[in-house]
Amino acid sequence: GAGVSQTPSNKVTEKGKYVELRCDPISGHTALYWYRQSLGQGPEFLIYFQGTGAADDSGLPNDRFFAVRPEGSVSTLKIQRTERGDSAVYLCASSLLPQSGANVLTFGAGSRLTVL
Amino acid sequence: QKEVEQNSGPLSVPEGAIASLNCTYSDRGSQSFFWYRQYSGKSPELIMFIYSNGDKEDGRFTAQLNKASQYVSLLIRDSQPSDSATYLCAVIGGRGGSNYKLTFGKGTLLTVNP
Questions:
Q1: Within 13 Å and on the Cβ side, how many CA atoms surround B108?
Q2: Are the Cβ atoms of A45 and B102 closer than 8 angstroms?
Q3: What Rg do the C-alpha atoms of chain B give, in angstroms?
Q4: I need a surface site. Which of A22, A31, A69, B31 has the fewest CB within 10 A?
């Protein structure tokens, strides 16, 4: 597609529920990233995919968070047993292969998650 | 000490003035530096990036990098009300040598008054 597409744009759930957030990157972008942005903060890195594999998942806060990208395109971020502290905007970004000196990420519009 | 620091603002300038946005970073090994603009409720969009010391100009925007001082800035000339947004500074590189992980500051809110 022309840009990075994320669904849903808004998700309201109850504490303890399971949620899935979907990201469809720009066609041809092999690198995909998930970031989380809380109110008044800059985006924080969660996970980076190179193709189908998670090359770096060091930003995932705990084992309730998991992400997949089975065919190297669409990715799903999965959050189990949601907590109120998970409320944030989850941003997906994609890029061509990172190169030394310049890695230009294009962000999607984000999925706003609210845990009641 | 936070890795990337920005004054949260708000920074208020009159229309037509020069807006100066500043950012410092703690990791001397950081390699590339990015400025993103984020309108309220929207996603970040890249304005420009810089990786060599000195100035880089793109239209009304100039990025300035001083690696010795670990300082990067963004100047916006002839500021317009449509420039009102949060400006995020981000860096890549440093410890571990990652060339993909952006570390963001909190952002500076800029308001351009007509």
A1: 24
A2: yes
A3: 14
A4: A22
What b-and-e string marks burial along A33-61, b requiring 16 or more CB atoms within 10 Å of the CB? Answer: bbbbbeeeebbbbbbbbbeeebebeebbe
> Lowest-pLDDT range, A62-66, A80-84, B89-93, B107-111?
B89-93
Rg (CA), chain A: 13
Residue A1 clears pLDDT 60, i.e. is over it: no
Helix (H) and strand (E) counts in chain A = 0, 11
CA distance B108 to chain A (A): 10
> Which among B43, B45, B100 has CB closest to A31?
B100
Q: How does pLDDT run across B9-67, given as a tens digit for each residue?
A: 899 999 999 999 999 999 988 889 999 999 998 999 999 999 899 999 999 999 999 99
Residue type, A58: S
Which residues of chain B have a CB within 8 Å of the CB of A42? 4, 88, 90, 104-107
Show which residues on chain B lie within 8 Å of chain A, measured between beta carbons: 4, 8, 31-32, 42-46, 49, 51, 88, 90, 92, 98-107
Which residues from A are below 8 Å from B100, CB to CB? Answer: 31, 33, 48, 55-56, 95, 98, 103
CA A103 to chain centre: 17
Express each pLDDT in A7-48 by its tens digit.
999 999 999 999 999 999 999 899 999 999 999 999 999 999
